[in-house]
Amino acid sequence: MKLLRRIFPHPHLTILLTLVWLLLANKPSLNSLLFGLLLGIVIPFITQPYWPDRPKLRNWPMVVEYILVVLWDIVLANIAVARIILFKRDEDREPNWVSIPLELRTPEAITVLAGTITMTPGTVSCDLSAQGHNLLVHCLDAPDPDAVRDQIKSRYERRLKEIFE
Amino acid sequence: MHSLFELLIAFFLIVSGIFGFVGSYGMLKLKDPMSRLHAPTKATTLGVGGVLLASIFHSILIERHLSLHELLITLFLFLTAPITALFIAKWHINRHETPADLPDAGEDGLWATHAVPQDEEKPDQTTN
């Protein structure tokens, strides 16, 4: 077991790298599988010093749920933003800054949250507070900033908290 | 059956075309720089996503072979686009916003872009 741990210090990264290599090759063959696996073993081994306290993913079903929720929200938000751009007069739009107090403390979790907020059209995460306890988000059209904050906290942050912490 | 597949592929291409267009139009129509930043996040999600789905369906349904490396484009876009947006936003905050313009940063007092030692040499404000 210990030997296995030493060869595969980061099994998820090994699987991910192998998958990415297979997708890059775009043709399932033993050749690319072996080379992908080789990369998947060598790269985690070399980069080991760079992730000393990596977080453990605790809740795999929640990861799947999170991805589906985000994809669905991206589709909905795209339509909402398209309507704002096409049909709303620029003077009626209310762009707003929103400050989101974070309960997440893991840097990786905050990164995922900030990335999710940016990729959902209509909101862009712009800055962290000095010690990383608040996230600054810019909204394209938010007459009610508190509602945006509550939605981000309940839809994304709650799920990320279950995944990472 | 073949024409049904083509209809499906055409649907995804049209969807991506529409959203790509709206994203670019937004860049023109929105007046303030922070709002303009929202346009590229639109184009990279449904705009690119539609083309990639159409490409995957085309290779599976019409050319009859599995091709999934389009998924990698989505993966890399989702990794890089938020970082670019964050850089542009931080530049904007650094140049054009004061702590008073932004909402309360909670217990930390200042946003990270403003929380640099004040005796640092100020960047040249005339070149923009």
From TrEMBL, chain A:
<keyword id="KW-1003">Cell membrane</keyword>
<comment type="similarity">
    <text>Belongs to the CPA3 antiporters (TC 2.A.63) subunit E family.</text>
</comment>
<keyword id="KW-1133">Transmembrane helix</keyword>
<feature type="transmembrane region" description="Helical">
    <location>
        <begin position="32"/>
        <end position="51"/>
    </location>
</feature>
<keyword id="KW-0812">Transmembrane</keyword>
<dbReference type="InterPro" id="IPR002758">
    <property type="entry name" value="Cation_antiport_E"/>
</dbReference>
<keyword id="KW-0472">Membrane</keyword>
<dbReference type="Pfam" id="PF01899">
    <property type="entry name" value="MNHE"/>
</dbReference>
<feature type="transmembrane region" description="Helical">
    <location>
        <begin position="63"/>
        <end position="86"/>
    </location>
</feature>
<protein>
    <submittedName>
        <fullName>Na+/H+ antiporter subunit E</fullName>
    </submittedName>
</protein>
From TrEMBL, chain B:
<feature type="transmembrane region" description="Helical">
    <location>
        <begin position="6"/>
        <end position="28"/>
    </location>
</feature>
<protein>
    <submittedName>
        <fullName>Na+/H+ antiporter subunit G</fullName>
    </submittedName>
</protein>
<dbReference type="InterPro" id="IPR005133">
    <property type="entry name" value="PhaG_MnhG_YufB"/>
</dbReference>
<feature type="compositionally biased region" description="Basic and acidic residues">
    <location>
        <begin position="117"/>
        <end position="128"/>
    </location>
</feature>
<keyword id="KW-1133">Transmembrane helix</keyword>
<feature type="transmembrane region" description="Helical">
    <location>
        <begin position="40"/>
        <end position="62"/>
    </location>
</feature>
<feature type="region of interest" description="Disordered">
    <location>
        <begin position="104"/>
        <end position="128"/>
    </location>
</feature>
<dbReference type="Pfam" id="PF03334">
    <property type="entry name" value="PhaG_MnhG_YufB"/>
</dbReference>
<keyword id="KW-0472">Membrane</keyword>
<keyword id="KW-0812">Transmembrane</keyword>
<feature type="transmembrane region" description="Helical">
    <location>
        <begin position="68"/>
        <end position="89"/>
    </location>
</feature>
